[in-house]
Structures are given as structure tokens and as C-alpha cells.
Amino acid sequence: MTKPQRILGIETSCDETAVAVYDDRAGLLAHDIYSQIALHAEFGGVVPELASRDHIRKTLPLLKNLLKQAGLGLADLDGIAYTAGPGLIGALLVGVTIGRSLAYALNIPAIAVHHMEGHLLAPMLEPDPPQFPFIALLVSGGHTQLMQVQGVGRYQLLGESLDDAAGEAFDKTAKMLGLPYPGGPELARLALQGNPQRFSFPRPMTDRPGMDFSFSGLKTFALNTLHEYGADAQTRADIAIAFEIAVAETLAIKCRRALELTGLKTLVVAGGVGANRRLRERLQILAQQHAARLCFPRPEFCTDNAAMIAYAGCQRLLAGQHEPLAFNAKARWAMSELPAV
Ligand code: KG4
Ligand code: ZN
After folding, report:
1. Which of 2, 281, 327, 331 could connect to 89 by a Cys-Cys bridge, CB 3.0–4.6 Å?
2. How far apart are CA 213 and CA 208, in angstroms?
3. Sign of dihedral through CA atoms 142, 83, 274, 254?
């Protein structure tokens, strides 16, 4: 393609409404996120119907404001990428419908993006991005997966969680400790006051070969510890740090296996739990031990955002992939179904 491609990204798969414009030559031009945290806080978790309704209210105003701030008009867009799954079906449908119909009205291509592919490619938005092939650890609220990545759409699953995702385990344990939603960052904050020597939590599934994970037992271990030792402030902080260390350590052990098995020298970490400071530090040590390079998105692009959706959509558009007029949202969608680029 001779002219630069400017892709609008729309993300509405869960509780963040996000929009961004990515230019294949100039990079990320603008992005904005509206978080629904306050809306769901009193319910202790995301209420799907409230999420969908709020996306309807927020997406277009957010988009208008983004274009205004970037000094762009709708006519400057060359394609529209939207998260088509996986996620909450009602929430997804808002972004899919707005994205697909806007593309139709502007007579430009529409690109349906897989949310986890967005997360996986988010480190590409950073200066000095990772080079293919690499190992990717995807750790979000809904997924925990280790992948061998040869290129866009060329993903081989090495291991995944057989029960709770890492972020889900953070959120559930945080709730148990009386922390508000969303629990992951709150638990990490509480852990700062914890004594790491007091409790030692198990590292699930590290005593057998393979790269699958299981995090639901850690949550039960936290609950039992809480019952046995009481729920005073110090005990809660001590449980938080023991839990956080166990998750970071378990993830690091499986990442080490992935590096050793494949001989690859780049480890990419993406998804909300990738914002966790202790995990970052632990993986940094692992990378040093293996003379490997560790790549993260900036913390704000670890959690849900539209910059990653615009980027992933742009790669697929440049490869000639886009959607027919019919649109589809998929609550479940395996990454193995994605075509290679
Ligand atoms: O990727 P993400 O924003 O949304 C999904 O696609 O799921 O991930 C959200 C998850 C939540 O479970 C949240 O608690 C967790 O990421 N999270 C964290 C941190 N920041 C977000 N977990 C631990 N430490 C953090 N700093
Ligand atoms: Zn996500």
C-alpha cells in the first residue's frame, strides 16, 4: 500500500470503553480509555448489562473527542478495527456494531480483532519492540496462556490454565481479603505491607512436567489460611504477599520451561496481570538467568485498551484481511482459529 494506513481501534469487551488511532508509519496517534470501575464497584464485580449500557453511552462521545484532540476527521480513517471477542457478549456487540456500521458508512474496511491477540501484540507499540519468534505469557482476567509466537496469527499454545485465570485468582482472593473490585492492583498494594516470611503458599502444578497452570487451589489455600489465622490487618497483608509471590513464582517456573523447551531468547508478557510489579521483577530475574530479553507493554497497555486493537487490526489489514458486511461477536473464540498473516 502506498499511502499510510490510519486505523481506528474500538474496545468494549468488558468494563473499559477505549478508542485509539494507529498509523502504520507514524505509530500511535491518539488513544483514550473510559473505565467503568466506579459503576461496578458497589456490586464487587462487572455487571454485564450495566457494562453494555455504559458502552452505548460512552463510545461515540469518546470517539468524537479523540478525533478532535488528534486533529483528525472521520475521512482521515482507512479502516476500523473492533474487538469482536472473546468477552461479554452484550458489551462486545456495542463496539462491533458501532465499528462495523461506521466502516460501512465511510466505505472503508472493517477488521474484527481477537482481544487476546490485541494483548499479545501490545508490546509492539513500545519503542524497540520484540522481534518474532518469541514466547508470550498472556495473563489477564479471563486467560492465562503460554504461547510460542512465530508471527501475527502464528501461535502455538504451550500451556494454559485448567481452571481460574491468574487475574481471576487475584480478583477472587482480593475479594476474600475484603478488598474492593478490581482486586488485582488492590491485592498488590496490600501485599506491600505483608511479611513474605510468614506464609508459604504452594506453586501449583510445578511438581509435574508441562506448562499448564491451575490457580483455583491458591484461592482456597488463602481462604483456609484466613480461617486458621484470623482476618486482622497484618494477617491479611501476609496472605496477600504469600499469594502474590506464589503466582509470580509459578508463572516464572512455567516461563522458564517454555524458554528452555524452545530455545527462544525473547519473553513477552501481556495482559492485566502483566502490570503486577512483583511479577515483572521475578520475570526480569528469569530473563537475566537465561540471557533472554523481557518485553512488556507500558502498564496502561497491559490492561484493556484500544491501542492494541488498532495495532492488531492494522497488521491484519496490511495483510489484506478484513470482514464482509455481516458482523459477528463471539463470547468465546480460540486464538487457534485466527488466520496467519
Ligand atoms: O487484561 P485485562 O485488563 O482484562 C482482561 O482481558 O481480562 O486484565 C484484568 C485483570 C484483572 O483480573 C485485574 O485484577 C488484573 O488484570 N490486574 C492485576 C494488576 N492490574 C490488573 N493483577 C495483579 N496486579 C496488578 N497490578
Ligand atoms: Zn483484556
Report:
1. 331
2. 11
3. positive
Residues contacting residue 251 through CB under 8 Å, at least 6 positions apart:
137, 139, 144, 166, 213, 279, 282, 283
Q: Is the CB of 83 under 6 A from ligand 1?
A: no
Domains of the chain: 6-121+302-337 (3.30.420.40), 132-296 (3.30.420.40)
pTM above 0.85, yes or no: yes
Atom of ligand 1 at shortest distance to CA of 302?
Answer: 1
Please give the chain's pLDDT, 341 residues, in tens: 578 899 999 999 999 999 999 999 999 999 999 999 999 999 999 999 999 999 999 999 999 999 999 999 999 999 999 999 999 999 999 999 999 999 999 999 999 999 999 999 999 999 999 999 999 999 999 999 999 999 999 999 999 999 999 999 999 999 999 999 889 999 999 999 999 999 999 999 999 999 999 999 999 999 999 999 999 999 999 999 999 999 999 999 999 999 999 999 999 999 999 999 999 999 999 999 999 999 999 999 999 999 999 999 999 999 999 999 988 999 999 999 999 99
| DSSP state, residue 31 | E
**52 and 15 Cβ atoms separated by less than 8 Å:** no
> CA-to-CA distance for 184 and 172, rounded, in angstroms?
9
Q: Which three cell numbers stand for residue 79?
A: 479502516
326 φ/ψ angles, rounded to the nearest 5 degrees: -65, 145
DSSP string spanning 47-113? -HHHHHHHHHHHHHHHHHHHHHHHT--GGG--EEEEEEESS-HHHHHHHHHHHHHHHHHHT--EEEE
- 133 Cα–ligand 1 center, Å: 25
Residue type, 197: Q
In ligand 1, which atom is closest to the CA atom of 277?
Answer: 26
